[in-house]
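pasting for ref. prot 1 ->
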Amino acid sequence: MKQLSISRKFKLITGSDIMKMMNDYKTDSENGMEKSTELMENVQFGLYLAFQTDPATGKQEYSEYLKTGEFDTDGNTFTSLVDRWKVVSGLE
């Protein structure tokens, strides 16, 4: 059965490319930029939604997150979600 990749779902949900966001996060982290927290939260919640929901539902939940700044990943950490994405994407 054909299905969307997690990276494609992430882009449909967040409107951003995950590889670009990860590169931005890495650059910001290396330079001590405060924007890293925002990027980290966007990646964390976007990946969580990509793994958990269909893109339409995920997009609604992500939009609500952008308004409120609040999100719940059921205890899934940034690192665990990124590691899982790397495995399913063949990056590791």
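and prot 2 ->
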Amino acid sequence: MACEEILNVGADLNWPPYSYLSEQEPMGIDIEASRSVFGALDYCLFFVDMPSAMRAQEQLNLGQIDLLMAASYSDERARNGWFSEAYRHETVVLFTHQNSLINALSVDDAFERGGTFAVNAGSYIGEDFIRLSRAYPEQIVYLSSTEQRLLMLNKGRIDFVVEDKEAGHYISQSKGFDQVFATELVVYQNPIHFMFSRQRFSVEQVSQINRFLKQR
């Protein structure tokens, strides 16, 4: 296929089922969504594995990355990049372990009971969690790897992991983290977007992509 342009796409390639490597080939729900949308508009994609969500945002802001997948909207992010229409939705929940002594009734309650949390550095999971993270900073550990966070939880070193429900379940099952399970405590539910570098995309280009997304 002839490409009009090649886009550098920032990705966490160790985050199944959304984005991961299979025999060195990028695969997953977000990868296929990106190929479907941008391929139809004659873009070719080069997926760049990012060490953290924070680094991905920094490189997008600098124009070193053209596009991010799986982006949650926030006003702060919107000052630095363009957002597409939503292409899927996500639910972020608390994961805990079988022997946890904290039977929390809510996310706030989990913090008030002294629970410790592992969170993805640089991710946006809603204003309520930002409020809690500022009120209880000593109870949060920031790790960029979902697998690392869930491994710590499986070993009982922390009380909770904040994670996308599907990704957390998939990785726990595939890695044999049999002490880990998803609670019913929802941290954040939100639409998921592509996020574009303002240095790379014009308003007109983003509008064209959004028109295509609305027609899907």
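Residues 91-190 form a domain with the D-Maltodextrin-Binding Protein; domain 2 fold (CATH 3.40.190.10).
The mean pLDDT is 95.
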